[in-house]
Amino acid sequence: MCEKSTTFPMSDANKPWIEKYRPRTIDDVAAQEHTTRVLKKQLGNANLPHMLFYGPPGTGKTSTILALSRQLFGHELVKSRVLELNASDERGISVVRDKIKNFAKQAPKASTSASIPAYKIIILDEADSMTQDAQSALRRTMETYSKSTRFCLVCNYVTRIIEPVASRCSKFRFKPLDEVDTRARLEHIAREEHIEYEDGVIDNLISTTHGDLRQAITFLQSATRLHQATNTKITPDTITEIAGTIPQNVIDSILSVCSNRKNFKEVQTTLKQVHLSGYASAQVLAQLHDKIIESASISDTSKAKSVLAIAEADKALTDGADDELQLLNLAMRLQMALNGVA
C-alpha cells in the first residue's frame, strides 16, 4: 500500500527573494517607465496586441508580463488563462504543435466579470532560443488563434527572432536598471529582511551586477545566509567573493606593473600570483577592460591599443590557448601601449 504524498506551499521565509519580491502589479515594476505607461493603458483593453519584450537579463521582462496577467485576469483565472513556457528548455517545433497549439485553441474559461478580457495569454520566455522551424510554426499559430489568444515573447536578443514573428508584435525594450533604482530596491529588501551590512555593500552589488537586479538580489540573499551563521555584518568583500569578481586591488596591481615600465620578472611574478589565486582569466580581461576604459589618466590612443590587445587575448583563450601565457603576453602588450611604445 503506497502512501499519498503531500506537498506543502513554500513559506515566505523559504522563498528565493527574487520570487518573494517579484512585482505584483505594473506599478511595482522598477525603472521601465515607458513600457509600464503603455501597458497600463492596455489594462482592460480587449485589443491587447501580441508583445515582444527584449533587453538584458534581470531587467523585469518576465515579471512585467506576469504582473500584467495578474491584473488582467485576477488570481482566480490567471492559472487557466495564462500558459508560461521556457523556450530554452522546450524550443522545438513539437512544442509549438502540441503544447502551444492545444492551449491556444481552447475556448477561454468564462468569467462573471465584464472587465476581464475574453482572451488567453501565452508567455514564451527566452524565445530567442527557439529554432527557426519552431518560430515559423509559431507565426502560423499566432495568425490562426489571434482572436482568442495573445502571445508575449520574452528574449535577450531581439535579432534572433525571425522577422515574420517580430513584425506581428508590439516591441518593448527593457533597459538595464540605473544605480538609483537598483539602490532603492536593494535597500527596501534589506529593510524588510532586517539585514545588517557595512558601508560599500550596496555599491559593490550595483557595480558587480551592471543593472541586473535579479542577480543583485540573489547575491544579497546568498551573502545574508552566509553571515547569519556567524551573526556578523555583510562586508563588501563577501559580495566580491560571491559574485566571482576579482578584488580591485588585484586589477590595480596588474595595471601598475604594466604602467610603470617594470621589468619582465616583476610582471611575471605579479601574474603568476594572479594565476595561482585561481582567478578566471576571462574575468581578469573583463575587469582590466573596464578599468582602462574608465581611466581618465590614459590617453585615447593607449586605450585603443590596450582594448585591441585584450580582445585578441580573449579570442586566443576562447580558442583554447594557455591562460598563464596569454595573460603574460597581454601584460607585455599593455606595457607597450600604456607607455607609448609603438
Automatic annotation (TrEMBL):
UniProt-annotated location(s): Nucleus
Occurrences of domain AAA+ ATPase (ranges): 47-178
Protein name stated in the entry: Replication factor C subunit 2
NCBIfam families reported in the protein's UniProt record: PRK00440.1
Keywords associated with the record: ATP-binding, DNA replication, DNA-binding, Nucleotide-binding, Nucleus
GO MF annotation, one: ATP hydrolysis activity
Keyword Magnesium: no
Pfam families per record: AAA, Rep_fac_C
CDD domains for this protein: AAA, HLD_clamp_RFC
Organism phylogeny: Eukaryota, Fungi, Dikarya, Basidiomycota, Wallemiomycotina
GO biological process: DNA repair; DNA replication checkpoint signaling; DNA strand elongation involved in DNA replication
Similarity section: Belongs to the activator 1 small subunits family.
